[in-house]
Automatic annotation (TrEMBL):
Record's keyword terms, sorted: Cell membrane, Membrane, Repeat, Secreted, Transferase, Transmembrane, Transmembrane helix
Cellular localisation: Cell membrane; Secreted
Entries under PANTHER family matching the protein: CARDIOLIPIN SYNTHASE, PHOSPHOLIPASE D
Annotated function: Could be a virulence factor.
NCBIfam families the record matches: bac_cardiolipin
Gene symbol of the encoding locus: cls
Domain of life: Bacteria
EC number(s) from the headed UniProt entry: 2.7.8.-
Record's protein name: Cardiolipin synthase
Length: 478
């Protein structure tokens, strides 16, 4: 073949590739902004401009925060099941509005409209921060179970902690207790096979949540995960918070609420929904949602969120509550990548005279996320937000309080992933006593943190600043 022919063929493929790349750019310029936040659209379009072919592949895989069609069809069927559960809950005598100051009185209505669950009175709560102590408490509750145990968890490890919980569950089954367990397929991937084998061998009904695989007939997207941590025992005791079932040396500082009272039924409803979505089994509403006679205790409410709940975003709740704050806002989270609405809400709260604190971990376990998170520190410090860097261990706890009146604790981080991609659950308490107990926990983390100052932060190495700014451009995709 002549040199001229080689040149012509090479020129043809070069031209073809250039046209292909520019076709991707033009088409994505139209598609990407559709029903997407400006920040997310800019992140995607930046990636498309520089790397059009990899961006196209990535967009096909994870470009839309929605489940496959088969799962959306299941969720459409779930609507009637959830209606029966919420109807059963709404008939409880415990359905009562919280007593709140006028600036926060619409908070409960907002949460009900987001997650469909009413506020329920007559609850009691403990805040548990002792990692191993919580596992001991959970096992004791499983050992005392009489009817059923329901667990949904992101990480269920085949380690000492996991084996202790498995032993308790198998023991409960031998006493005639029904035990059901959901574990996230990706979060527990390195242990999932062994954990499922041990559970099923002991008579526990266990399934993977959102399993992924190229050869699976019905596979989930790898980036859409069930990040919830819900433990329900006999419809009487419930747990929600940040802690997984794994040894303490893997994850570190946690906070979990152990609740009793009618609000446990709302955690039960979220579990029943997740169970149906993975198994298509409809759990018996009459058995799992007994009537709770309201006693003395606090008003509480559950907020589920995720791609299956298009209006139920933790971010919507946080922004609404921050705009209503008059005295004090404290956010504790391991990952902080806000969108524009949340960032502006925090900045304007300071301008109104609100004392705003953000507690994040100095230690980072995800490098790119860490760089993106730190890119916001200068704006936060300039606005007057007090930024605490927890120095002891990786701070994995996730909680939020407003004016000593309302607190939230759950599985959701303050980042785009938890706002849009992960299935999460939050417990909201309208009670000064439990919020005061949370404040003691917050003060403890303040004492174990370094208060970051603007001059010190601006003095960091210029190369670090470049990495942070580049990571921030990609933050809507993280």
């Amino acid at each position: 073949m002549s040199e001229a022919l080689y040149f012509e063929i090479g020129s043809f493929w070069t031209l073809f590739y250039l046209l292909f790349e520019w076709s991707i750019r033009v088409i994505m310029l139209v598609i990407v902004p559709f029903r997407r936040s400006p920040d997310a659209a800019k992140g995607w379009l930046l990636l498309v401009f520089f790397l059009p072919v990899p961006a196209l592949v990535l967009y096909i895989l994870i470009g839309r925060p929605s489940y496959p069609r088969w799962r959306r069809m299941r969720f459409a069927r779930l609507h009637t099941i959830l209606e029966r559960a919420t109807h059963q809950i709404s008939r409880l005598e415990a359905c009562r509005p919280p007593i709140l100051p006028s600036n926060l009185v619409q908070a409960a209505t907002l949460i009900k409209n987001l997650g469909q669950f009413p506020t329920l009175a007559g609850n009691n709560a403990e805040l548990l921060s002792d990692y191993n102590g919580l596992i001991d408490r959970l096992i004791a509750d499983i050992d005392a179970a009489q009817d059923h145990v329901h667990l949904v968890v992101y990480i269920f490890a085949d380690d000492n902690t996991g084996r202790r919980v498995i032993k308790a569950l198998v023991g409960a089954v031998r006493r005639g207790v029904t035990c059901r367990v959901l574990i996230d397929a990706l979060g527990s991937r390195q242990w999932a096979r062994r954990v499922l084998e041990a559970l099923t061998a002991g008579g526990v009904t266990a399934h993977l949540a959102l399993p992924v695989g190229l050869l699976r007939r019905r596979t989930a997207r790898a980036d859409l995960r069930n990040h919830r941590k819900i433990f329900v025992i006999d419809s009487r005791i419930g747990y929600a918070g940040s802690q997984n079932i794994v040894d303490a040396n893997v994850t570190n500082e946690e906070l979990v609420a152990r609740v009793t009272g009618p609000v446990v039924l709302e955690l039960q409803a979220v579990f029943a929904a997740d169970w149906f979505l993975e198994t298509e089994q409809v759990l018996n509403i009459a058995d799992l949602f007994p009537h709770h006679h309201p006693g003395s205790g606090m008003v509480a409410q559950v907020l589920p969120s995720g791609p299956d709940y298009p209006t139920a975003g933790v971010e919507n709740l946080m922004v609404g509550l921050i705009h209503g704050a008059r005295e004090r806002v404290v956010i504790t989270t391991p990952y902080f990548i806000p969108d524009e609405a949340l960032l502006r809400a925090l900045q304007t709260a300071v301008l109104r005279g609100v004392d705003v604190h953000l507690v994040v971990s100095r230690r980072v376990d995800q490098v790119l996320v860490g760089f993106a998170q730190r890119s916001y520190y200068e704006e936060l410090l300039e606005a007057g937000i007090r930024l605490h860097l927890y120095r002891s261990r990786l701070l994995h706890a996730k909680h939020f309080s407003i004016d000593g009146e309302i607190m939230l604790i759950g599985s959701s981080n303050v980042d785009i992933r938890s706002f849009l991609l992960n299935a999460e659950v939050s417990l909201i308490f309208y009670d000064k006593d439990v919020t005061a107990r949370l404040r003691l926990e917050q003060e403890r983390t303040f004492a174990s943190s370094d208060l970051l100052t603007l001059p010190l932060w601006r003095d960091r190495f210029v190369g670090i600043k470049v990495c942070e700014n580049l990571a921030r451009l990609m933050s809507p995709l993280l």
